[in-house]
Specification:
The chain is of the alpha/beta class and about 500 residues long. It contains 15 helices and 21 strands. The chain is elongated, with a radius of gyration of 24 Å. It binds ligand BES and zinc ion (2 copies).
Length: about 500
């Protein structure tokens, strides 16, 4: 992670290896942005004609390199397109920051004026924070399994012509460090993160972040009657567990909220075994839990005032002689029972117990995150998570938080008459519905475990939890989706309280 700092000096005067400046796209070409215009003047218009000659359009992410000659102290200039001038919001700046980080892997010191390119609400500190987030996220690398890793050399990013912006930098880093930690947890191979191992890793990291963690082992799970977690974990050689997190700031604490995350460290499907193509990415099936753990870890540095309690069950869903069988009936924390007709619909079974625990805390809101259904990916694709719940206002708040933080969610319904699909002749419910609307029947299953007087929202992140390729601030592999949304929502909900 590079160090970020700011200076009042003009971009062309700062000693660095690369100077990164913005440009806007226009109807018939492009316009140079803050910091770039004066460079063009110094070059007597040569910078502009060079870019024009290459057909540069300043589309978001489009870049051109230009040797500085004597127009700047830095030997090279990188012009980055940020799209239309009036539309350069926070997300355009995050994307530009990501482009900066990706284009600077071979240099050590970069100076930039990208933070000044934003329109309206993306100015000043907000602009700096967005570029920090984009650069820190886009520069993410997971190299620990390479024999000869070649990590980015970028060590320092300097914001030029900038007012003091320590807070903006540290907030941007708090968020992006959290996302990147979630990515680390997700990218780790399943063989290296059995439930007890990942739970202990999380606990030791969070203890220095003002969050207390309790790990419930198999015996404790039994004592607490978490039949869903035990049932899904029954087939694995590695015992399941559950982490209970608590963040309670000093002083009169405000709202109490609960987070829940699906932590299936590997989803083979169990006895309802997945085909090989469906299984190869299933180390990422704990992305909900990773997002929750990482969010908890950022609360203190963001100065969150709310009292936040979280639960993440960790299990490995495996077939074996001791595995739960199709047709088995599990009994959950809240005494309801479910007939398990497909052991691959396991996420809802572990979340059932965790949502019951969350409800017992009587919080003002519950939000759960889970890579729950392939059906949600069919509905919304790989970049948008599904938002379901019992409270439209809370759903709206999470969608707004997503928009504001650079993620995307879409409200899906939980139609009461679809509940018929999960009725069972012999248990209270069954764990699968029919072929269609699978994201919704999964959501309806979860609803059975939430106290209906508590506003609750479920985020089905199966699509955006993993990316096939790098794209701006999103990196290939685990994306850490949900962390930005949760942090934006919690900080907003807290400041309003
Ligand atoms: N972990 C999967 C959902 C998933 C699929 C996440 C692909 C990310 C990528 C979940 O446990 C699962 O297998 N769901 C089944 C449910 C079905 C059996 C009712 C599914 O979606 O096919
Ligand atoms: Zn599954
Ligand atoms: Zn799963």
């Amino acid at each position: 992670m590079p160090k970020f700092s700011c200076t009042g000096d003009s971009p062309s005067a700062v000693k660095a290896d690369l100077l990164v400046v913005p440009a806007y796209s226009t109807e018939n070409g492009f316009e140079l942005g803050p910091g770039a215009k004066s460079l063009d003047k110094k070059s007597a218009g040569q910078l502009f004609s060079y870019l024009s000659g290459l057909g540069f359009k300043a589309k978001a992410g489009e870049t051109v390199r230009y040797p500085s000659g004597d127009i700047a102290v830095a030997p090279a200039i990188l012009v980055v397109g940020v799209g239309k001038k009036g539309e350069a919001g926070l997300q355009a700046l995050r994307q530009a920051g990501a482009v900066l980080a990706r284009s600077s892997k071979k240099v050590r010191r970069v100076v930039t004026s990208l933070h000044k390119a934003g329109a309206r609400s993306a100015k000043g500190e907000a602009g700096v924070r967005a570029v920090v987030e984009g650069a820190a996220l886009g520069g993410y690398e997971f190299l620990r399994y390479k024999k000869d890793p070649e990590p980015s050399r970028l060590a320092e990013v300097i914001f030029a012509e900038c007012e003091p912006c320590k807070n903006a930098i540290s907030e941007g880093l708090a968020v992006s460090d959290a996302v990147n930690w979630a990515r680390d947890l997700v990218n780790e191979p399943a063989g290296a993160k059995p439930p007890a191992v990942i739970a202990n890793q999380i606990k030791s990291k969070l203890e220095s972040a003002g969050v207390s963690c309790e790990i419930w082992d198999r015996r404790r799970l039994a004592k607490e009657r978490l039949g869903g977690v035990l049932g899904v974990g029954a087939g694995s050689a590695n015992d399941p567990c559950l982490v209970r997190y608590e963040y309670k700031p000093r002083g009169k604490s405000q709202k109490k909220i609960c987070l829940v995350g699906k932590g299936v460290v590997f989803d083979s499907g169990g006895l309802s075994l997945k085909p090989a193509e469906g299984m190869d990415t299933m180390k990422t099936d704990m992305s909900g839990a990773a997002a929750v753990a990482a969010t908890m870890g950022a609360l203190k540095s963001l100065g969150v005032k709310a009292h936040v309690i979280a639960f993440t069950p960790f299990v490995e869903n495996m077939p074996s002689g001791s595995a739960s069988k199709p047709g088995d009936i599990l009994k959950f924390r809240n005494n309801k029972t479910a007939e398990v007709l497909n052991t691959d619909a396991e996420g809802r079974l572990i979340l059932a117990d965790a949502l019951s625990l969350a409800s017992e805390e009587k919080p003002a809101a519950i939000v759960d995150l889970a890579t729950l259904t392939g059906a949600c990916m069919v509905a919304l694709g790989m970049k948008i998570f599904g938002v379901m719940g019992n409270d439209d206002k809370l759903a709206r708040a999470l969608i707004d938080a997503a928009d504001q933080s650079g993620e995307r969610g879409w409200h899906l319904p939980l139609p009461a008459d679809y509940r018929k699909q999960i009725e069972s002749p012999i248990a209270d419910i069954k764990n699968i519905g029919n072929r269609y609307g699978g994201a919704l029947t999964a959501g309806l299953f979860l609803q059975e475990f939430v106290d209906e007087s508590i506003p609750w929202v479920h985020l089905d992140i199966a699509g955006p939890a993993r990316a096939d390729a790098d794209e701006f601030e999103v990196t290939q592999g685990g994306t850490g989706v949900g962390v930005r949304t949760l942090l934006a929502w919690i900080t907003e909900a807290t400041s309003a309280a």
